[in-house]
Design a protein that fits this description.
By secondary structure, this protein is of the alpha/beta class. 39% of the residues lie in helices and 17% in strands. The chain contains 15 helices and 14 strands. Helix 12 links the parallel strand 9 and strand 10. Helix 5 packs antiparallel against helix 7.
Length: 461
């Protein structure tokens, strides 16, 4: 019983290391407790106990919507992160590989994965953040769990990786832009179908009125222009165009367009300083059960899906907007949690990253804070400066080193301007992605299956 309790304590500690708590130093402690319990108790049982405690904290935000959603997410995430512990490893130095494999599985499956509550999100304020530039967020997980094994060789390896990551150069700046975000403000905790009494577009106009020239680029949040049809045929395009022309700026705004009775499009649309629409990107990575319902005809008989009456049409492309301000890489809201969307944009030529988002349906701080953490990871991984705008927060600026400033308050109306840099070149992670970490993880697991393979010690069953 004692190992199970220790594993639960470890899971809670790692859960509290995540935003909004941000106590990053609890994660190595939590994994050390898990490692101790895993060595002395039932492997699968301690893994399940740890992961259950961890996700009780990390996925608490889903309770705002429905208990059944929380239970369903818990079951899926605990299953995926516990499955690797079925592998009959013979050496305890395989522990970091098992944990990292669990994160890898949940990042990608099912329905494209769920990186919210990702372990690396809790490390953005700690010394491991530069590791993301070297090898991505999975490498942060691997290094973190190496520390937890409390082995001299592991500490030496971690010191070498972290020390080396600090010397990886950031892609050089090629220019600078005066960049602004506009946050209209308003109530939180309302779903789109409930938020009918808020003048979202008017609030955005009033926030934008606080800005003064010169400003090269203005970002509006996701879904602040909600239309019954294409924006190309709606008069609102002239209102936004007048704002862009008045500021002599490039303005990017989140637009939702109905497409028939059962579908809609979620896009980032660009107006240039002439007041004309010049480009657009439609969201590729949709939110399951938030923006569409998989197998809707079946699910409607099993659960209440009225809060999601229509399905978003999946977009395509690399997310790069071609503008006078430069080549802008866009990740719309949920997409910021997926490293591949940022990498795809930078491969397509993005010089700076934009995150128009909308977390207004969440009452608490957990998802908005995790989203800021994800933005910091994407900025570091790609070596690009970034601006995020949300209608009720958090809006924020992030540089290529992951530093943030002018983060807005939740619910408030806000507008801010700063200088960000356009950048060219790539980071090691941008070039090769997760391949090196996956190879290391699989190599460790294969080697650990052999009882004769040299290792520091054998784990106990």
């Amino acid at each position: 019983m004692k190992p199970l309790l220790v594993a639960v304590a470890g899971g809670l500690a790692v859960g509290i290391s995540l935003p909004p708590f941000g106590l990053w130093f609890l994660a190595p402690v939590g994994y050390a407790l898990f490692f101790w319990a895993w060595q002395r108790g039932h492997r699968l049982g301690t893994a399940a106990a740890f992961n259950t405690a961890y996700f009780l904290v990390g996925l608490a935000w889903s309770l705002e919507f429905a208990v059944v959603a929380f239970v369903g997410l818990m079951l899926i995430e605990v299953l995926l992160t516990t499955l690797p512990f079925l592998i009959p490893v013979k050496h305890d130095w395989a522990f970091p590989a098992l944990v990292t494999l669990g994160e890898l599985l949940r990042y990608r499956w099912p329905l494209g994965g769920l990186p919210l509550a990702g372990v690396a999100l809790g490390q953005v304020n700690g010394p491991l953040l530069p590791v993301a530039r070297l090898a991505g967020d999975l490498a942060v997980v691997l290094v973190l769990t190496l520390v937890a094994t409390r082995r001299l060789w592991a500490f030496a390896l971690v010191a070498a990786i972290v020390g080396g990551s600090w010397f990886v150069p950031t892609p050089k700046a090629t220019g600078s832009l005066r960049v602004a975000y506009a946050q209209g403000g308003g109530p939180r905790g309302l779903r789109a179908i409930e938020n009918v009494g808020t003048d979202v577009f008017g609030n955005q106009e009033r926030a934008t009125a606080r800005l003064q020239r010169p400003v090269d680029l203005v970002l509006w949040p996701e879904d602040v222009i909600d239309l019954a049809g294409p924006i190309a045929r709606d008069p609102v395009k002239f209102e936004v165009g007048d704002l862009a022309a008045g500021l002599q700026t490039t303005l990017v705004a989140g637009v939702v367009e109905d497409s028939g009775l059962h579908h809609f499009r979620n896009a980032a649309v660009v107006w240039d300083r002439s007041g004309k629409i010049v480009d657009r990107y439609e969201k590729v990575h949709r939110v399951p059960f938030g923006e569409y319902v998989p197998a809707r005809s079946l699910v409607k008989h099993l659960a209440n899906i009225t809060p999601v009456p229509r399905d978003a049409i999946a977009g395509h492309g690399d997310g790069v907007l071609l503008t006078r301000a430069g080549q802008l890489g866009v990740m719309i809201s949920y997409e910021v949690f997926f490293a591949d969307r940022a990498r795809t944009a930078v491969h397509g030529g993005a010089e700076i990253l934009l995150v128009p988002t909308n977390a207004s349906s969440f009452k608490g701080r957990q998802v908005p804070r995790q989203e800021v953490a994800a933005a910091r990871l994407r900025a570091v991984e790609t070596g690009r400066d970034l601006v995020q705008a949300a209608p009720t927060g958090h809006s924020v600026f992030v540089d290529a080193h992951g530093h943030t400033w002018k983060r807005s308050r939740l619910g408030a109306r806000a507008a801010a301007v700063t200088v960000l840099h356009t950048r060219a070149g790539t980071t090691p992670y941008q070039r090769v992605g997760d391949v090196p970490v996956v190879v290391v993880v699989l190599g460790l697991l294969v080697a650990s299956l052999s009882p004769s393979w040299p290792g520091p010690s054998a784990s106990r069953s």
